[in-house]
Structures are given as structure tokens and as C-alpha cells.
Amino acid sequence: MPLASSQYRKGLLQPAIRSITQVLPHVTKARSELNNILGDAYWITGDIHRAIDCQKQTLSDMAKRTSCEKIASTDYYFKMLTVDAHLSLGLYYIDLWELDQAASQFETVIARASATPHQAWADKATVGLSLVRAYLGEHQKATTLVNEVAERLTLGTDGECGRYGYFLQLLGQACSQLHLFDQAETLHTRAMLAAETGHYVQVKARTLAGRGVLKRQQDRFSEAIALHQQAIALCAQIGAVCDQAEAYLQLALTLQSVEQATEHATVRSPSSATPKKHDVPKHHSKQYFQQARSLLSTMGAPNRLARLTSVLSS
């Protein structure tokens, strides 16, 4: 189990999946935790529906154990696996763009874990919920949640923040959505440090992508494109299909912004050259929209495909 967990964190996703699936039929006590790790590995590789099945199996196993073994609902290990499975489901539903279901899972974690020894899970779920509220345009609710959790996640030394690396970058995304740019930059910086310190490859890739979005919002297009490309390369290296699809989409959106800015500049002054800040590689956004569409189709993510179509038609 420690080997599979270490492989997963370092981005060795297929070896982690192989290790767990080979061991899983032969264990009983650690089965729920292995399913929990396996779900996350499937999720990152784009097999989200199988990932959802893994977490639901974890929840089912925990419910059966409670019934058969008379495990107290306050048992630390039992409750940890239960709230972690709900937290994972919330993250998976975000990637499927099923935002209401994601919110429901996060709210379940907050209700069960707040003011308990599992407060860390409640904090992580609050981060997830803040991003969902921001995506849904509920900016006041999202800002309240960001303010509620930001200090708790960033207290302590950089090393102590390592366990929150994924959620630091997630909170950075929420801040970007809310145009809290300075706070977003700070959170991405802490997330990158946590990723590099903990050798957490997926967090590094996602943080690069998040920084790319932030640079685009600030019209720093060359920097944004470089960050998107780094994120795509790192996702491809570890087989992180979900994150690669999003990175392709964000690169396409950045290139679309460049194309629009260039077109407007040409209309205003046909004889002038493209402004230097738009001096970027000559790629076309359409090819990257298509790359994103192809990956989302393989994932079985119709809501995210609809989101992409909406972006293209706007």
C-alpha cells in the first residue's frame, strides 16, 4: 500500500494501478483504502467513471463494516476513509463539470468533519466548494468560503503546507475566478513549492496550468502560453488525461485571446505590426480546442464537452 501511494504521488499512475489491482483481490482489511487510492489514480488518467465506482465501493464497504463489526461512527480511521471518499467524489464531479453533485459531496464532508479531528478534510472540502461556487457565478458565496479557509491552509511552515498542495492550487484557481489576482499568485507559489518538495507531479502540472490562466487574465500572453505548454507536457508525461484536457482548453482560450487582440489591433491600425506583448508562437486555437474535445470524449464527460461547445459559440 505505501508503494502504490508513493507511485501515485510521483505520477507513476499506471504502475500504481497495476500494483493495486494485483493486490486488491487478496486483501480484506486494507481493501477500502486501496480502493480509495485506486479511484484517484483512475481519475487522473481520465477513467473518471471507474474512479467514481471505486469511491462508492469504499463508502459501501465502510457502511457494511459499521453494520457488521459495530464500528463506532467516531472511529478515526473509518471516518477518515468515509470523508476522503466523499471529498474525492467532489473533485471527480468537478472534472465532469457536474457542479451541483460536486457541491453536494463537499457539503457532506464539511458537515461530517468540521470541528472534529478530521477538520483538515473539512478545510479541503471548503476549498473545493469555493471553486464550485466561483464557477457557478456565486461570487459572494465563493469569496466568503475563500476567506474562511485561506488562512488555515497557509498557516505554518512551507513544509507543513505540503499536505495541502493540491488544495492550495485549487484555491488559487478560485481566486483567479474571483479576480483576486495577488492572492491567486501567492497561493500558486505556495502550491508549486509544496509540489516540488513533495515530488507531487500532478500538483505541479495543475499549478503551471493555473498560473497560465492567471497570466492570461493579466494579458501576459507569452508567459501564459509557455506555462500552458509546460503543463501539457507534464500531463502527457504522467498520463494525466483529465488535467491535460483542461490544459489544452486553457491554451486554446489563451491563443483565442491573442488572435482576437491581434485582429482588433489590425482593424485599428492595418499598417502597424502586432503589439510586442502578443509576440507569441503562431499556433491556431482551433487545433487545441480539438485536442481538448478528443480527450474529453474519451473520458465520457458530456457536461465538459457542452462547456467547451459553449465557449466556442460565445
Could you explain how this protein is built, in words?
There is one protein chain. This protein has 314 residues and is mainly alpha-helical. The protein has a domain of 119 residues: Serine Threonine Protein Phosphatase 5, Tetratricopeptide repeat. 78% of the residues lie in helices and 0% in strands. It is built from 15 helices and no strands. Helix 1 packs antiparallel against helix 2. About 3% of the residues have low confidence.
Brief digest:
With 314 residues, the protein is mainly α.
What's the layout of helices and strands?
Layout: H1 2-9, H2 13-23, H3 31-44, H4 48-69, H5 76-95, H6 99-113, H7 119-135, H8 139-154, H9 165-177, H10 181-198, H11 201-217, H12 221-238, H13 241-268, H14 285-299, H15 302-313
Helix pairs in contact: 1-2, 2-3, 3-4, 3-5, 4-5, 5-6, 5-7, 6-7, 7-8, 7-9, 8-9, 9-10, 9-11, 10-11, 11-12, 11-13, 12-13, 13-14, 14-15
Low-confidence stretches: 271-278
Strand-and-helix sequence, N→C? HHHHHHHHHHHHHHH
Distance between the termini: 47 Å
Looking at CATH, which topology of the domain at 1-119 would you report?
Serine Threonine Protein Phosphatase 5, Tetratricopeptide repeat
CATH homology superfamily name of the domain at 1-119: Tetratricopeptide repeat domain
Mean pLDDT: 86
What overall geometry do the principal axes of the alpha carbons give? Answer: globular
